[in-house]
Known about the structure:
conserved putative lor/sdh protein from methanococcus maripaludis s2 fold, 28% helix, alpha+beta, disordered C terminus, 4-stranded antiparallel beta sheet, 12-stranded antiparallel beta sheet, 3 helices, single chain
Amino acid sequence: xxxxxxxxxxxxxxxxxxxxxxxxxxxxxxxxxxxxxxxxxxxxxxxxxxxxxxxxxxxxxxxxxxxxxxxxxxxxxxxxxxxxxxxxxxxxxxxxxxxxxxxxxxxxxxxxxxxxxxxxxxxxxxxxxxxxxxxxxxxxxxxxxxxxxxxxxxxxxxxxxxxxxxxxxxxxxxxxxxxxxxxxxxxxxxxxxxxxxxxxxxxxxxxxxxxxxxxxxxxxxxxxxxxxxxxxxxxxxxxxxxxxxxxxxxxxxxxxxxxxxxxxxxxxxxxxxxxxxxxxxxxxxxxxxxxxxxxxxxxxxxxxxxxxxxxxxxxxxxxxxxxxxxxxxxxxxxxxxxxxxxxxxxxxxxxxxxxxxxxxxxxxxxxxxxxxxxxxxxxxxxxxxxxxxxxxxxxxxxxxxxxxxxx
Length: 407
């Protein structure tokens, strides 16, 4: 018996719907199987609590300069006839450094000496005149006492005596002035021979033998002598960190030329104001306190100074130093990675930390921390040595995306 077409079509549609439902249910069961809870530790980055050193530091850059140095200049003009030293040479205080042509200064000294001799001869002559006038005045005084002389002769003798004595005093003043000028000329003559004002090393020589030196308006710098046995580090600290510094705090620094080596010291001085900016085009190139729209975007740096021993000679002027000011330090303490610290409590320096308990279960603990650096923090309570903690969670653990179906 043949079924009607309508019945056949209904049967086909029913079978298709049944197959679709079976397919959807199969996919759902497969997804449910994939969604089964996995091991939570599989997607966790773990760390174990151990001991170490934690330093809270302020980092800055500095330049090394000699602690004691002097710029040697010329105080007289003339040709540089001899240069006795070279860069890098060690000198002792008083050693000859250079000689400037002394012809002009020597001529001034000779002229001053001749003028001084002339004045002294004039003084001797004037003293003789004063003695004669004084004797005349004594005789006129005796004659007037016995009324044997006119009053005009007495007055004339008294005037000549006082005039002669005044001239003697005037010549004395001229002699003192000439002697002072002569001493200055002799000093200028001595300046033509330049000697080392201190013991040290010649770190720069800017003059050349045969060069003409002109010191009329400004004393030219010929060379620099420095004591390299001790160095001063001029460190530039940003205004955001300068309030954390205090005089006497410990510090250490490294240099590019000595990787892995540290030099230790203590902060000696923190200058109260930043360096004065160099003028450019009549305007301030930077710094704080200036007017204008660009001042707000300028970084303000303060200068911190400290010394370091350089008896070994390993440090050189103008070296760059990476300086670490130690604001706080904790040695041989329990440490926890900063990345593992969760929510911070409202009061106190405490954080939530996820700990792997016995059996692999996860537990949340409240941990109290102390000194911290960029990577670790000191543990003051809440954790024990050897505890395993969760530092972070993996963002891609290989599981398929969780896609749901709705029938």
